[in-house]
Request: fold
Amino acid sequence: MQRELWWQTGVIYQIYPRSFQDSNGDGIGDLRGITQRLSYLVELGIDAIWLTPIFPSPMADFGYDISDYTDIDPLFGGLDEFDALLAAAHAQGIKVILDLVPNHTSDEHPWFLESRASRESRKRDWYIWRDPAANGGPPNNWLSVFGGSAWEYDGASGQYYYHAFLAAQPDLNWRNPAVRSAIYEVMRFWFRRGVDGFRVDVVWHLIKDDEFRDNPPNADFRVTDPPHHRLVPLYTADRPEVHDVIAEMRRVADEFPDRVLIGEIYLPLERLVAYYGRDLGGMHLPFNFSLLGASWHASVIAGLIGEYEAALPSGGWPNWVLGNHDWPRIASRIGPDQAKVATMLLLTLRGTPTIYYGDEIAMKEVTIAPDQVRDPLEKNVRGQGLGRDGCRTPMQWDRTTHAGFSSVESWLPVGIMDHDNVVAQLCDNTSMYWLCRRLIDLRRKCPALSLGSYGSVRADENLLIFTREHGGEQLLVALNFAGEPAAASFPSGEWSGRLLISSAGDRAGESVRGSVNLRAHEGTVVEISQGGTR
Ligand code: GLC
Reply:
């Protein structure tokens, strides 16, 4: 039997480096800060950290506009600080995953400067250049995710270049083998340094239609939707040929032992699972974002778990996400009480969980005043609630003025920290922090949770019950999505067991027989000793 891999049994923790820990008093987090906080992560029990981009960048999109793929932005430190972080993390058993941004570079990247220099440039074809339409306008109707046309006119050469995001983020031409080789060399550079994997940015965008056909209108578009939803991205994303380049990328990762590729892909589940690739030769983990936008009802969540489990290819390893740097925080989306239920769900489902920094202390969205807005998406598409600054604010370590994050005012405001800070939650047995830590510990101790099968038991509007099973071990997870008490039972059969953990922080060790009585907003994990579904 194949041994389990670290990225299958482990828990991943996403760090937004600008906001985790500032060590040099400039109000922006850095690599040394992360190294200083490693012991916190070890105690929490996570297995791997993923750092959003730390490479040299003009920061038009906060690091997703890279001007040098093989160095560290001075804001965060240098290669020495990176090596020190990597060594310290590895010494404590923590893997390090970096962000690979292959779809686009900064417009200040030397590749783009050379490409832009003239139509005859050797690197002209490294990016996507097109002549104007007959009327002089953009070559077609493609829209930028960050608002407006996806085409930017370059007066000097009389052509347009394509940018799926900001004009300062021109898209690379992945149909050009030289581009592919250059990015593969970037991967090898970091793999050789000891990096354990990559989260691959917008990987479903890499290939665009080679005939540059117009995208069709979206009949379901509502004015409150992000403006680019006006069109269906039929010809700009999820093209069939993308799977060939992903397979190539995967072969590069496979040159090194035990590395992981995690794909950022926002697609419906049935399309998402294609990104495991033919014979699982694609992404190891195509990020499953289905919980991010789901309406929070037990029956809906049960439905999407079932849909995902059914869609997964044989041998494809599942994964789950509750939050990231592009989405409003879970504690604000569904409220702090239900955020505990959601955390129990994340850490008891089958598949690798990714925790967004600060969600383990139930950090909420921080209100951003108009003059504090930093996110280019919010600046371009004002007032539609698309802004991502509120979920990117400094980690709330303690209640001091700068939250223990920095000695000066930070680049984004810190939130209200009465209870949502590490120090306060460490002292409170019923906190989100302790729930998270205990669940991670339980996951590590119980193969049923880290490796076991998933069995759906029951779901109605408010109650979600499922089992996890491995070897002789059978666990029952019962989650109450409502503000009233509920009794969770198997539809039939006598069973008895022992309650291992409650989201409220008490009840561990309680004997249970036939059903579990759940309080409002309570989730429990029960170890079944007799009966059950067997
Ligand atoms: C991804 C990142 C997001 C970024 C975008 C463009 O979606 O998660 O933060 O703005 O790519 O690179």
Remarks:
- The CA atoms of residues 324 and 356 lie 5 Å apart.
